[in-house]
Amino acid sequence: MEVLVRRAHPGEAQPCGRICYEAFHKIYTDYGFPPGLLKADPVVDLFSARFSHPGFWCVVAERNGRIVGSNCLDERSPVFGVGPITVDPEVQDRGIGRWLMEAVLDRSRERKVPSVRLVLAAFHNRALALYNKLGFDTREPLSVMQGPPLRFSIDGCTVRTAALHDLEAANRVCERVHGHNRSGELSDAILEGTALVVERQGRITGYASSLGFSGHAEGESNLDLKALIAAAGSLSGPGILVPTRNSELFRWCLEKGLRVVQPMTLMTIGLYNEPAGAYLPSVLY
Ligand SMILES: CC(C)(COP(=O)(O)OP(=O)(O)OC[C@H]1O[C@@H](n2cnc3c(N)ncnc32)[C@H](O)[C@@H]1OP(=O)(O)O)[C@@H](O)C(=O)NCCC(=O)NCCS
User: How confident is the model at residue 101 (pLDDT cuts 50, 70, 90)?
Assistant: First the structure.
């Protein structure tokens, strides 16, 4: 099969968004998940934003002049994240996903990043096999959780919208937990107005780039994450990703009425430190 993998153009968001929607719709329906988890329009908007953002390196796979898949590499922070990668359901399982992954891994090697990460639907056998063969190690079981807005505050914790002058202190929290920061993503989120910080005794002890599927959160302790989740008006997309091994936080979310939507898995290539603190990964990592 003649397939060309090349850089994506901003004008190609529509076909890539459609393929992404259809690929996830199919996988969710095949595995018996509610099909309404993903909406078509926001997916196209997401591709428009990524294809024109200088911090993303995105590729498409083209077959006989027709786009049949795409993949994105988020290069905004010192650790790169992959996704979404999707292949047209009509031509899946024929090697196109591997080519799309190899393209972003080659790029990551050229850029000499210490680590590349992704999150996948835990039940997707093909993706799990493919990523393992490409060198990704399984790191963390995750539970996507969703529920009604909690809207309460926790004694001793002040949650407020983040400003650019909070960036350095927030980055320090992330560095303390993971050994690296996610500064590029966080500064974008601050400018978009989705980021929150939590303060205890006048000091920033945690932050969320946003509360939901595409946002990550870091905290010195579970208390900081609880304060952020409790303050959130709503959890965007399918929900927040809670590390399932963090039993205290997971149990707290269940007690507060959040429901488990689906299992996911964090995978990494390269440098990885066991997190030293509390965190919620995004769907990227
Ligand atoms: C995941 C996805 C991108 C993979 O693309 P693809 O073109 O279908 O996959 P490929 O054919 O390139 O690779 C599949 C590999 O897994 C292997 N494989 C497939 N099912 C397998 C199984 N059940 N057990 C073991 N290996 C399996 C294949 O043999 C192949 O290995 P190879 O590269 O060594 O030949 C595509 O299936 C897709 O879009 N899925 C829906 C959306 C999605 O879940 N995206 C990923 C989100 S993280």
Answer: very high
Which fold would CATH assign to domain 145-280? Answer: Aminopeptidase (3.40.630)
Confidence of residue 42 (pLDDT cuts 50, 70, 90): confident
Q: Which amino acid residue places its CA nearest to atom 1 of ligand 1?
A: 127
Question: pTM higher than 0.85 for the full model?
Answer: yes
Atom of ligand 1 nearest to the CA of 87: 39
Distance CA 106, CA 118 (A): 16
Q: What is the mean pLDDT of the chain?
A: 96
The upper half-sphere exposure of residue 41, i.e. CA atoms within 13 Å in the direction of its Cβ, equals: 0
Find the 56 Cα to ligand 1 centroid distance in Å.
23
Rounded-to-integer distance, Cα 208 and Cα 5, Å: 35
Q: Domains of the chain: which residue ranges?
A: 4-113, 145-280
Ligand 1 pocket: which residues have CB below 6 Å?
A: 23-24, 27, 83-87, 92-98, 118, 120-121, 124-127, 129-130, 133
4-113 folds as Aminopeptidase (3.40.630)
Distance 214 CA to ligand 1 centre (A): 23
Nearest CA to 114 out of 263, 261, 273, 271 is that of: 271
pLDDT, tens digit, for every residue of 256-268? 999 999 999 999 9
Under the banding of pLDDT at 50, 70 and 90, the label for residue 40 is confident
Nearest protein Cα to ligand 1, atom 30: 130
In 3D space, the residue among 196, 170, 193 whose CA is nearest the CA of residue 182 turns out to be 170
Domains 4-113 and 145-280 in one fold: yes
CA of 277 to the centre of ligand 1 (A): 33
C-alpha of residue 98 to centroid of ligand 1, in Å: 7
The two tokens of residue 153 are: 């505050």
